[in-house]
Design brief:
The protein folds into 2 domains: about 5-70 and about 180-260, STM4215-like (2-Layer Sandwich), CATH 3.30.2000; about 85-175 and about 265-295, no CATH class. The chain contains 4 helices and 16 strands. It has helices spanning about 5-20, 45, 140-150, 200-215, and strands spanning about 35-40, 55-70, 80, 90-95, 95-100, 110-120, 130-135, 155, 160, 165-175, 175-195, 220, 225-235, 245-265, 270-280, 280-290. The radius of gyration is 31 Å and the shape is elongated.
């Protein structure tokens, strides 16, 4: 999830890549030694041998307090599904038996389930469906046992489970992914401050950075999120020129999202109810699979 720290870090990295286009072992775009970082210039740095007065320029990135406004996020906070990790477990059915297998050389993972068509003598309802969330420590035998425990009367022998009174088994496997939703969208003003020990250095650095960023409309925060970049003006500040410190403030509005992410499993079976109007009044009818009693 993006916040002002990940956005500020991403903006600092953007400035670094813009000024050192050929890497930090090569000269900067301004031709001067430049350090880019988050935060403010401390007194120790100002007076140190690597300070602006010693010939090192600085680019500092920080959010501006109070310069924040909210922007309407997508209505309803809809979720988007990210990459899905495929299951490594499979089920092979034959008659009223199902055999669990795990892909060779893989770590057990995913979800595995069965829907059972059962006759009238079965100790569970027809179309009962149950799912087991596979754990890395699982084996084919433990997965079969976990599924068997969800169907009264079922037995296991190693990786195979047998379900009495069943005349049809529907296997299903699914992977897991992530579901992400945008819960807040905002615009935050960031200050990119340039420090140099000479006005010529400040001008060279400012011109180089301004030109390099002028064509950038999007950048990546340190957490991988995309942020929109809008230039909001610049100004020279010479109140410390008596100390040979020359400053330029460049302002950028950054639009970024606050998000929530959670693990999400693929759906294996569906179940539900409908209200049907009859001459005797409304009747609730089920459709799809039957949910185990413990999950209703």
């Amino acid at each position: 999830m993006s916040d002002i720290s990940s956005v500020a870090t991403g903006l600092a990295q953007l400035c670094a890549s813009a000024l050192y286009q050929n890497g930090t072992n090569a000269a900067s775009l301004s031709g001067r030694r430049t350090i880019i970082q988050r935060g403010w210039l401390t007194e120790a740095v100002m007076s140190g041998i690597c300070g602006p007065q010693g010939g090192t320029d600085y680019v500092l990135v920080m959010p501006v307090q109070g310069a924040y406004r909210t922007i309407p996020e997508p209505l309803g906070w809809p979720c988007e599904t990210g990459p899905i990790t495929a299951p490594t477990v499979s089920l092979n059915v034959r008659g009223n038996t199902a055999t669990v297998s795990i892909a060779a050389g893989s770590v057990p993972g995913g979800n595995v389930g069965l829907q059972v068509r059962a006759d009238a003598n079965a100790p569970f309802p027809d179309r009962l469906a149950a799912v087991h969330a596979v754990q890395p420590s699982d084996t084919s035998a433990t997965i079969a046992a976990a599924l068997a425990a969800l169907f009264p009367g079922a037995t296991t022998q190693g990786p195979t489970l047998t379900i009495p009174h069943a005349f049809g088994l529907t296997p299903a496997t699914g992977g897991t992914g992530t579901a992400m939703r945008i819960t807040r969208r905002q615009q935050q003003l960031f200050l990119v401050t340039l420090w140099s020990g000479a006005p010529e250095g400040r001008d060279a650095l400012g011109s180089a950075l301004d030109g390099a960023l002028s064509g950038v409309t999007w950048f990546t925060a340190s957490d991988g999120a995309q942020c929109q970049l809008k230039f909001a003006g610049s100004a020279d500040i010479d109140t410390m020129q008596a100390q040979s410190l020359y400053r330029r403030d460049m302002r950028f509005n950054v639009i970024y999202d606050t998000t929530q992410t959670q693990a999400a499993a693929q759906m294996l079976f569906g179940a539900g109810v409908v209200h049907v109007q009859t001459p005797d009044g409304p009747v609730i009818q089920t459709f799809g699979s039957v949910i185990p009693d413990g999950l209703q």
